[in-house]
Amino acid sequence: MLIAFNKPFGVACKFSPEPGRKTLADYIDVRSVYPAGRLDWDSEGLMLLTDDGVLQARIAEPKRKMAKVYWAQVEGSPSQTALHQLRKGVSLGDFTTQPANANLIEEPQELWPRDPPIRYRAKIPTAWIELTLREGKNRQVRRMTAKVGFPTLRLIRAAIGKVRVEGLALGTWREIGPDAPWSG
Q1: What is the dotted CATH code of the domain comprising 2-175?
Q2: Domain ranges of the chain
Q3: Of 22, 29, 53, 122, which is most buried with the most CB atoms under 10 A?
């Protein structure tokens, strides 16, 4: 079984209880599945869960370099220089990121409201960047955008392989075919 889940902000990526926080158990009533990779509690969007350990490793294992697409709402208006830095790789001190696809985009069409909303500041513009990574280190997107001068305010994983979050309402899940993420 393979499940696509649209994780809300503030949800821990585990089924076991965590005092004061919602977990996957608050949304998914299938207890035989486990997350294939994780998403920080302050990030939103697509997660894949499975009951197949081999499939779980294929999705989550960094050496497989599966493409993951993120939408990052950032503070400020990123320059072409900043986008170029993201594209070539960014030194984060403990490691240098692999090259990423990085492009300015309009706010995604089917975007759900975040609860709580991000802080609005009239004098500071925001922009959206679509980043495609083939690695996934801890808080990598947030660290990358901050390093080039544009801190992430909101982070949404939009796709893993060919599985996309579009059409999946916030906090809902659907079962998908087990080979869907590998076809691209």
Answers
A1: 3.30.70.1560
A2: 2-175
A3: 22
Contact, 34 vs 51, CB < 8 A? yes
Q: Say whether 40 is catalytic.
A: yes
Residue 82, phi then psi, degrees to nearest 5: -65, -45
> Phi, psi (5° rounding) for residue 181?
-70, -10
Q: DSSP characters for 35-74?
A: ESS---TT-EEEEEEES-HHHHHHHH-GGG---EEEEEEE
Average pLDDT over residues 118-143: 90
Element (H, E) at 147: helix 140-147
Active-site choice (26, 40, 51, 52) = 40
Which residue do the tokens 């059409």 mark? 167
Question: Residue 66: CB partners within 8 Å, gap ≥ 6?
Answer: 58, 59, 134, 160, 161, 181
d(CA 62, CA 133): 11
Indicate the pLDDT class of residue 180, thresholds 50, 70 and 90. Answer: low
Residue 42: phi and psi, rounded to 5, are: -95, 10
Cβ neighbors of 161 (< 8 A, separation 6 or more) are: 59, 66, 67, 180, 181, 182, 183, 184
Give the DSSP per-residue string, 83-116. Answer: HHHHHH--B-SS-BPPP-EEEEEPPPTTPPPPSS
Model confidence over 102-125: pLDDT tens digits?
999 999 988 999 999 988 888 889
